[in-house]
Amino acid sequence: MKVVTLCLLVAAVAGGAEGVLAPPERQYKILLLLPMSFRSHRTIFMSLAEALAERGHKVVMLTNHPKSSSHPNIDEVTHGLEYINDENINMFNDRKQGYKIMRESIVRLARDLYDVPVVKELYLRRKDFDLIVVSSLFNEMAYPFVYEIPFIAFLAREVNRRETVVLGNVLNLAYVCSFGHLCTVPMSAWQRFLNVVSHIHEFYYGQILVLLPKLQKEISAHFPDLPPLLDLERNMSMMFVNTHFSVGMPVPLLPSQVEVGAIHCRPANPLSQELESWITGAGSPGVIYFSLGSFTKFTNIPVQYRDVFVQAFRRLPQRVIWKYDGDLEDVPDNVMIRKWLPQQDILGEIIQFYVMTGGN
Ligand SMILES: *[C@@H]1O[C@H](CO)[C@@H](O)[C@H](O)[C@H]1NC(C)=O
Q1: Is residue 232 a contact partner of residue 144, using CB atoms and an 8 Å limit?
Q2: Residue 13 confidence (pLDDT)
Q3: Terminal C-alpha separation, the chain
Q4: What does R_g of the chain's alpha carbons equal in angstroms?
Q5: Does the CB atom of residue 237 touch ligand 1 within 6 A?
Q6: pTM above threshold 0.85
Q7: Tens of pLDDT along 262-273?
Q8: Closest CA to 202 of 92, 103, 89, 292
Q9: Per DSSP, what are the bridge partners of residue 338?
């Protein structure tokens, strides 16, 4: 939701304003590592890859997704270990179970990744790269790549305390929300208490005590002489964070922690005739765009919860465009469902039609 607001803001305020950079001094080779990434995280990395490629640098991306860019300067390496892909992890079974499955898949990935021939080959030529950018959190199995090479950590989400401590920025849990825990700004005393408990539980129990030792064991089996993963992580030169202070929670950051939120936003492209007329035909009640992102699968949600959405949408005077990853019987007349939607173009169209023209 925050990202959506941010895109709206960028589209509305920034328009097409772009700074002009001096040409790069030379062509660099940059390796982007996101062996465990959701589709939306890949989209964010792709905007970085494309901007670098556009400026003449050579980019190689290691991901768990099929190739999606045709840029000649971008080479996508897919490791093909399918169990890590979002469609194979159901976070709706039970939240705790979902995280457990995710952790287990990550440990499996640490075990299998370096046995994949294309990954092995990439690992052996890693010293050819001038810079590595690693997707942060749950990609610790990629740290053997960064040994003795300058690297940047890219947080596809908001900052969290464990990772920012690495750069010496110890966030105060009294006013910075821990990952996976919803807070309002400012937090109530009760939320602060829960924030501390959930932080201790998630990071010290979930990660430091459970996940990291397992990852370390798998990685040490492949690379017995390598420093520990957390020591490799500590050598990061910089951190990119996918948030922006204008719409996010206020967080004190160091000069080496750069907010790059909305990096993936671009001017809207024209919509298909069908979407265009659905939006403009909604009249004065307007249109609601509804998506839970790429990781949350509606097909995984228990039917009774899904039906609550259907019934609520049915009662609305607005038209609803719903990113829904399956087939649904009995779709209300005011609801359009699609498996994947051009979100930025839709938001652009909605702004154009309702904000700029007053929607008539
Ligand atoms: C730490 O990073 C620097 C450059 O950023 C690099 O020269 C050095 O080899 C790295 N050390 C380790 C242990 O990776």
Answers
A1: yes
A2: 43
A3: 26
A4: 22
A5: yes
A6: no
A7: 888 888 899 999
A8: 103
A9: 323
Distance 153 CA to ligand 1 centre (A): 14
- What is the tens place of the pLDDT at every residue in 91-142? 666 556 667 778 889 999 999 999 999 999 999 999 999 999 999 878 999 9
Distance of CA 235 to the CA centre of its chain: 23
Does 2-171+227-259 match 273-356 in CATH topology? yes
pLDDT in tens, 53-78: 999 999 999 999 999 999 999 999 99
Residues 6+ apart with CB under 8 A from 12: 351, 355
pLDDT at 228: 95
For the Cβ of 238 lying below 6 angstroms from any atom of ligand 1, the answer is no
Strands (E), 73-171: 74-78, 131-135, 151-155
**273-356, superfamily in CATH?**
Glycogen Phosphorylase B; (3.40.50.2000)
Domain boundaries, the chain: 2-171+227-259, 273-356
- Cα 272 from Cα 214, distance rounded (Å): 48
- Mutation pick for ligand 1 pocket among 129, 134, 149, 239 (CB with most ligand atoms within 8 Å): 149
Which amino acid type is present at position 346? I
> 2-171+227-259 in CATH: which number?
3.40.50
pLDDT in tens, 141-170: 999 999 999 999 999 888 888 888 889 999
Q: Whose CA is nearest to atom 6 of ligand 1?
A: 148
Residue 83 CA, ligand 1 centroid: distance in Å: 32
- How far, in Å, CA of 35 to CA of 132, rounded? 13
Any long-range contacts for 301-307 (C-beta under 8 Å, 24+ apart)? Answer: 301/92, 302/92
Count of CB atoms situated within 10 Å of the CB of 56:
12
* Rama region for 137: left / alpha / beta (φ>0; ψ in -120 to 50; rest): left
